[in-house]
Amino acid sequence: MINTKLPGLSKSRYVAGLQCHKLLHTRAHDPDSIPEPDAFTQYLFDQGTAAGKLATKFFPGGTEIPAFPIDESIQKTQAALDKGAEHIFEAAFNFENIHVKVDILRNLGDNKFDIIEVKSGTSVKDVHLDDLAIQKYVLEGNDFEINSTILMHMNKEYRHPDGELFVLFDQTEKVDKRMPQVPGNLENMREMLLLDGPPESRIGPQCKKPYECALMKQCWQHIPEMSIFNIPGFRGKWDYYNQGIIQLEDVPEDFMGTPGQMPFVHSFRSRKPHIDHAGLENFMSELKEPIYFMDFETLQLATPKYNGTKPWLQHPVQWSVHILKDGESEPEHHEFIHTEDSDPREPFIQSLLDVLGNSGSIVVYSASFEGGRLKEIAEAFPQYQEKINNVLERLWDQLVVFRKFYCDSRFKGSNSIKSVLPVLVPKLSYKNLEIQEGGAAMVEYARMIGLPDGDDKDIIKNNLLKYCELDTLAMVEIHRVLIDY
């Protein structure tokens, strides 16, 4: 007999329970204590929700069920079935106090149905199979015969406006392999939900799989700022943690890490940066003047809007360039931002090529990012291919310095510019800016292009320009530090 006084379960709660019982207990009994997602995460959620709405258009004539109240949504789902609806969007069902909404329920007749789960990503993940499994469990509990369980996700081969934006993959065989575990999973979750408080939950790899847990900040409070988790790419960290080795000071003297890990450990133990002077000098000698320091900001869209674009493409919308010329101590600054809700790519590349000239090194922080965006523009606008190739040949990646030649434990195991800058150039800081990191910049950019011209739009524009400018100025100042070694 199911205890109906317990908090009900759902698709999302079931998946949360598979990841961590403490997370499920908190979501069920104390949801207000769970931190709200940050602005960038919410932006990605909203992009995914919009893509899911778009997916329903591939089933014309479908019936959409209002999400709330739950009892009413279940009644309206039954009414749609009674009328013989072929496709029902957000079809609602309850079984054993488990409430699920099926993104798209396909009615095949004779009490046979397909469950279609819509995801805005471009691939199948294990967590999607668990999502489908709990839906199948609930519908079979309502005496429906499930013909197929299908994942519908965005087509990574799609190029707007041609082709199919979504693709469907039958996951029935994989889902059926999960079905025998569902009753046991539910029983364990319900027993745990009877507890007066959340269960003790030891941290582990599950804290970030399949998603980063909203309770991480709370559960990881006992982990010091510098710990074994800062050792770059250290696969043995959980073995150490389970042995009680958490502090970096407690790492055994005979620790034998990879070539990417030992410099970090040496730096921490010596309290000094670990520098390969010969390698650094040789790498820095590749720079040719004038030196351009370049950074991009992008807008990522789940649903393609512009010709030739694909799902989740990062559209370059803003650049900053500082130029250090031979004999000049102060860099020259140039910048661009596309302020309209239109295709930014051609104005972006035209303005950038006008500034970069034909010679001189172009310093970026992670060449794979800027280089990747340039290659995408070259593919979309072949008339710029030759000039873009010239730019690609001149790229020089400042991030390589910190991956290969310069390690300081004060970077805390990260080589991001946000970690390196406060150590090498403490006079520069993002803390005084309204926008302090790339995710927030994307959110603010998306907000800006939706505004009419005026003061509100100008404020966001200026904040974005200041943020991107600091990214390239930071590279300039890091460069000045490096040439002194």
Radius of gyration: 27 Å
Query: What amount of the residues lies in strands?
Result: 15-25%
Low-confidence stretches: none
**Helical content (DSSP H or I, runs of 4+):** 40-55%
Overall geometry comes to globular
By CATH, the topology of the largest domain is: Nucleotidyltransferase, domain 5
Helix count? 18
Oligomerization status of the protein chains: single chain
* CATH A-level architecture of the largest domain: 2-Layer Sandwich
Number of spatially distinct domains: 2
| Distance N to C terminus | 72 Å
The helix/strand class is alpha/beta
Tell how many strands the DSSP assignment holds.
14
Largest sheet: 7 strands, mixed
Write out the CATH superfamily name of the largest domain: Ribonuclease H-like superfamily/Ribonuclease H
CATH C-level class of the largest domain is Alpha Beta
Average pLDDT metric? 96
Keywords:
alpha/beta; Lambda Exonuclease, Chain A; 2 domains; seven-stranded mixed sheet; five-stranded mixed sheet; about 20% strand; globular
Descriptive notes:
The protein is of the alpha/beta class and 485 residues long. The chain folds into two domains: 9-193, Alpha-Beta Complex (Lambda Exonuclease, Chain A), CATH 3.90.320.10; 273-485, Nucleotidyltransferase, domain 5. Helix content is 41%, strand content 18%. It contains 18 helices and 14 strands. Strands 1, 2, 3, 4, 5, 6 and 7 form a seven-stranded mixed sheet that branches. Strands 11-10-9-12-13 form a five-stranded mixed sheet, sandwiched between helices. Strand 4 and strand 5 (112-119) form a beta hairpin. The protein is globular. The model has no long low-confidence stretch (mean pLDDT 96).
